[in-house]
Every structure is written in C-alpha cells, then in structure tokens.
Amino acid sequence: MEISLLMIITVVVYLIATAIFGYIGYKQTTTSSDYLVAGRKQHPMIMALSYGATFISTSAIVGFGGAAASMGMGMLWLTFLNIFVGIFIAFVYFGKRTRKMGHSLDAHTFPELMGRRYESRFIQGASGLLIFLFMPLYAGAVMIGGAVFLQQVFGINYEVALLFFAAITAVYVVFGGMKGVMYTDAFQGAIMFIGMAILLVFTYVKLGGVITAHEKLTALASLVPAGMAKGGHTGWTSMPKFASPMWMSLITTLVMGVGLGVLAQPQLSVRFMTVKSNKELNRAVIIGGIFILMMTGVAFTVGALTNVYFVEKYKMISLDVTTADPAVLKAMDEGTYAAPKEEPKVVASVKAIPAATKQATGEVAASVKPAKKAIPDNIIPLYIAKAMPEWFTALFMVTLLAAAMSTLSSQFHTMGTALSRDFYEKGLEIKSKNSLLLNKVGTGIGIIFAVVVAWLLPKALEGGSNIIAIGTSLFFGLCAAAFIPMYIGALYSKSVTKTAAIASFAIGSLTSLFWMTFFHTKESSALKICKFIFGKDTLATNPVMATLDPIVVALPISFLVILVVSMMTKKTEEKHLKKCFDGIKGGK
Amino acid sequence: MLGLEGTGVALAYIFTILATLLCIVYGWINWNKGDENEKKEVKEELKWEKKDSKLSK
Description:
The complex is a heterodimer.
Chain A: H1 5-27, H2 32-37, H3 44-55, H4 58-71, H5 76-104, H6 110-117, H7 121-154, H8 158-206, H9 210-218, H10 226-230, H11 245-261, H12 266-269, H13 278-314, H14 318-321, H15 326-334, H16 355-361, H17 379-387, H18 390-427, H19 435-460, H20 467-492, H21 498-518, H22 521-527, H23 529-534, H24 543-547, H25 550-568, H26 574-580
Helix pairs in contact in A: 1-8, 1-18, 3-8, 3-13, 3-18, 4-13, 4-18, 5-11, 5-13, 6-7, 7-8, 7-18, 7-19, 7-20, 8-13, 8-18, 8-19, 9-13, 11-20, 13-17, 18-19, 20-21, 20-25, 21-22, 21-25
Chain B: H1 7-29, H2 38-56
C-alpha cells in the first residue's frame, strides 16, 4: 500500500479527536457507576453507536467482506441476522429486561447481573475469570489487525505498532472508563458510518446503478473457479448448492455461530445497562438497525461486487487479483501492460468466460496466472486502493482503524472489570476501600495480559495462521455455551435455579473447550494439545465430526443441563424473584 | 429479481432491508414509550451514587 501524506494527516487528526473524547469521558467519571455503566444515563444515539461499533470490528468489514467476494451475496443472510437477532431481538427482548433487572439488582457488569440474579458469588467470580482468561484471544485477534494497519501506515516495526495501538486505546479505557469508551465509540462509529455509506454509493454509481451492478455480477457466474464450483459455489448472486460444503459453512457458521453467539457477548450486554429507561432502548433500535445495515450490509454487497470491477478492469475475479503481480496490475492501470507474445496462458478461472462477457471485458489477461494462494482479506483494501479516489482511501483506512479501536476498547474494559469487580472483589471476596481505583488497576492488568497474549499468540499458533478466525470463534462459541441458557433463564424464567445455572455454565463451557481442543479440527490443530497427548490433530473419526462447530454440541447440552437440574433442585425464594422481576412482565 | 440470479440471495437482500425497516418502525412507534419508572429509578440511583462516591474517596 502506498502511504500518502494525506493519509498520515488523517490518521493523526483522528487520533487527536479520539484522545479528546477519551478525555471528556475521564473528566466526567467520578464514581464506579460512571466507570462501569457510564452512570446509566447515556443518550440513545451514543449507546446505539457504541453497541454497533463494538459489535463490528475490522474483520467484519475486511475479513467478511473478502469472504463475500469469494462466496457471494448469500453472505447477506448474515447481515439479516446481525440486524434481526443482533439488534432487534437483542434490544427488545434481551436489552429491556437486562436494563431493568440490572437496575433492580444494582448490577454493573454482565457477570454481576448473573451473580446477583442467581444469588451466586461463584457465578459472578467464575464468569469474570472465564471472560478475563479467554477474551484476550478475541482482543488479540482485533489487536493484530490494528497493529498491522499502523505498521503499514507509519512504516514501523510490528511489535512497536502493537504496543502503540494498545497504548492509545489503553489510555482512554483505563482513565475514561465506560464513558470514555462510549464517547470514543460513538465518534468512531460515526466515522465508520460515513466511510461505508460513501463506499456503497461510489460502488453502485461506478458499476452503473443497483440493478445493473447486480446483473453484471450475475453474468460472471461462469467464472467461478472449478474448485469452488465443486465445493457448491453456483455464482455470486445465488446460494451455494444445498448441503454442499460451502452451504454448510455459510449456514451453520452464520446461523449458529454469529447469529446466536452475539446474544451472550458480555461487552455488548453491559451496554443495555448504560441507559436510564426503555425509552432510550426503543430509540436506539432505529440507530442500531441502520448502523449495522451500513456496516456488514455494505461490506458484503461491495465485497461481492468487487468481482465486477476487477473483471472489467483486469479481466480477473477478485480472488485472482490478490495473487497477481502488483507490477502487472500497475502496468495495466497505466495502460502500459503488454502481454507476452508466446502461447497465451489463460487464467484458470477465466477459462470458461462466455462470449458475451468476453466482448464486454476484452481479451483475457494472459500471463497473469495466479501462482500463489488467494488471500480474501486483501480484496477490500485492494479494491479501495484501485477503485476509490485517494482522499477516500485515507478516510477508509481511518474507518478500519476506528472499527478496530472501538471493539478493542470495549474488550479491554470488559476484561478489566471482569478481573477487578467480578473475580477479585466478588469471587475472592476481597473488599476494597476505593472501588474506582481498583477497577482502573484491574483494567490496566487486563490490557497488559491481552497485549502479551496478542504478542505471543501468532508465534504459538503456527506463525499466526488463522489467528483472527480462531480467536474470534473460540470466544464466541465459549460465551454462547456458557452464558446463553443461564442468561435466558435469568431474564425469562423464575424456575431456573442457582444450581442449574452453575451446572449449565460449567458443563457448557467445559464441553465447548473440550470439543475445540480434541475434535473441531480448526481449533484443535492450532492448539496442538490433542497432537501432544494423542499424536494426532483430532480425535474425530469422520469429517462431519471434525467440522461440527463446538456451539452445535455444547449449546444444546448446556440447555439440557439447565432444564433437568432446575427440575431437581431447590427453587429460588419468591422474595428474591420479586425483586429481580420488579417492573418486568411475566417470567415463569 | 433485483438483478440477482437466485431467490435465496434476493430474499436475503430484501429481508435485510425489511429487518432494518422493522427496527425503524418499532423505534418510531415506541419513541416516547418506556420511561414510566424513570423517576423512581433515578431516585434510587442517586442514593447509590452517594454511597458509591463515599467509597471512591
């Protein structure tokens, strides 16, 4: 990537603005309530933007956008779930009860809400510990993305970039607490919104309008590489073949992993407790819905449409462009590219180009046959660099930095409070004279731990291959199995007992970890524990077992445990239930 | 439909927009609802804040 002066200036201005918002948060933070739940008085716009910006990280835009360039617009089912489940269901059916119950029980964190609802010190302490130990994997994934970006923009060493990135975010999280995090999130969310809106408009205009752009993409179906077609790919505007490997990956990962996993993310759930009434949540639903549409909706649509742009410009689909020689692409940009005179080596994936498309795109680009493995993560940055004006490249790079920082700051905050408030203060029952100071220290320790993990992880896991996907899916899967049954039980049922919640939490998280360590090859091969003990990557005896997502195994078990144990154990006292469900309708 | 070949993708495109519209309509209809207990809650919080401030000093 060529780094211009404009880009450096934009990044510096952005960082200064972020520091100012962080400082405002710091000045307004005087109590633990300010530090943990932003004083419970946030504006719906700030809350919704903060929720959305935390939800959407750089990998959702660049990583999943690249996946859409490869798999096609079927990825939009994920956007649908992001909006319907991640915003509508989450705010209306989880958020309102979380806020009200959080208030009734004076809870300040997600583990504290669970602990107080079930009257269990163990639940709060153990949930805090689980978050503190495993969230660094997810935070590490986000941090690596941000550090790589800074490394490219400022041309600095990776380790320096990692420390720099973590340090900037750490300052406003440690001192500004939840207010600092939410103000900066809202500012970063606004940048993300503008960046993605411009990207969408530019792309559709460049490709001839909405319908025309879609039709052009549909016409490229015959360019699907043979290997991908074998895996079920039928074109970029149609779904993969039913039950094919690509269909399985698209549907099971999206529906189970991302669609449900988002409901039990502690860094998101705590945001419901930052507003003073349900009115704010009702208003925030509007902003949240539109925001997510403009994030993943745009990333997946533009991601798929990059194929049209690249085929028109280079006669190559997006995946092939990531492997092409940059010098050749540059020569083609400048119109100085001359194909070698020898026997043309037709690009594999362009072999089957139909006559009509051939006419539209000109002669097939010979001699640029991709020899390396395609890198979907590079597609969106390449498209931005090639198709967008220079000023937008600078804005978009800041958009990506904002996406990374807004997610990371919330992760830092959640990890820190999980350690100080939930594990240390409640789990170990160590009283502190100054709770606010303790939270700041806890957040500082959490950040150092996360940075160390982000530093070591790429070295430990096969040179960092797939680290972002593994770190994210591990944490999402674990949270879903450990927290979803307990969370739903807490908000909707008076019959779920304390013992059942503990059993579900313990068995859900252990099953999830066990499956990841010994069966699900994606994680087990990277973790290497299975290899160390049994001498092989997985204990799975067939491919279905090896690819079965841990959430599919652990979540039903966790639900079953909570139901069965609730029937067998002592009910919660009516007096406590009355307090929990004060102002909440129903509850069985 | 919409220049998209498969029904599955066209449905995803439409459902995505409908889900956003659902959020907008829901928020619009309930714009001023949901703050019935606000006064009581704010009073309680003021009490907690006082206690919290003492602890932080």
